[in-house]
Amino acid sequence: MNKRLNLMLFALILFLVACGNEYEGDFSFEVQEFNYTNQEGETFSSSELEGKFWVADMVFTNCDSVCPPMTANMARLQKKLADENLDVELVSFSVDPDNDTPEKLKQYSKDRGASFDNWNLLTGYKLEDIKEFAIKSFKAPVDKIADSDQMVHTVYFYLVSPDGNAIKRYDGTKAAEMDEIVKDIKEMM
Q: What is 25-188's CATH topology?
């Protein structure tokens, strides 16, 4: 009986190990569920990303420093993914939802080369909501700079696995990092 119990425990351990996360990255942060408004004024939720790789970043349209190159690099990444025929979603979260309307986000990204077949730019929440979402999902602080219209936020692009965990990050201000994202996704698919 003891042998049988040991064998069953061994089988259970093997099963649990086999069911673990198959996507290896530098970390594993569970991305919180969300239900926000995209650049078309439509509801877009995390459930639409289930089972897919996706890349997330945080930007805002009034940004006078890192957001323009980040958004241009996301458009560059979008083209590289299409060239490689990789089915990957892109999601940009506004860190200034009081200012960033769907129309502003659409024009801002379009001016930097975006198309919208696999890229959703999200708003429609309160600043406190995105602050909490960013810290819980990506360990990335977001805050308003006092006496300014500027925001403090991460410059990273986050690779999110099909099981909903952020697993790697890349410097979104560096164009060369877009090649690394594509390479990593190809290796994991």
A: Glutaredoxin (3.40.30)
* Parallel, antiparallel or unpaired: strands 156-160 and 151-152: unpaired
| Nearest Cα residue to 105 out of 88, 122, 118 | 122
How much is the pLDDT for 18?
39
CA 87 vs. chain centroid, Å, equals: 15
CA angle at residue 29 from 24 to 32, to 5 degrees? 130
pLDDT at 183: 98
Nearest Cα neighbor of 167 from 21, 60, 62 is 21
With contact defined as beta carbons under 8 Å apart, do 123 and 92 qualify?
no
CB atoms near residue 37 (< 10 Å): 20
What pLDDT digit, counting tens, does each position of 129-157 carry? 999 999 999 999 999 999 999 999 999 99
Q: How do residues 112-123 score in pLDDT, each as one tens digit?
A: 999 999 999 999
Q: What is the pLDDT of residue 2?
A: 52
As beta bridge partners, residue 160 has 54, 166
Distances 98 to 87, 144, 182 between C-alpha atoms, Å = 32, 11, 33
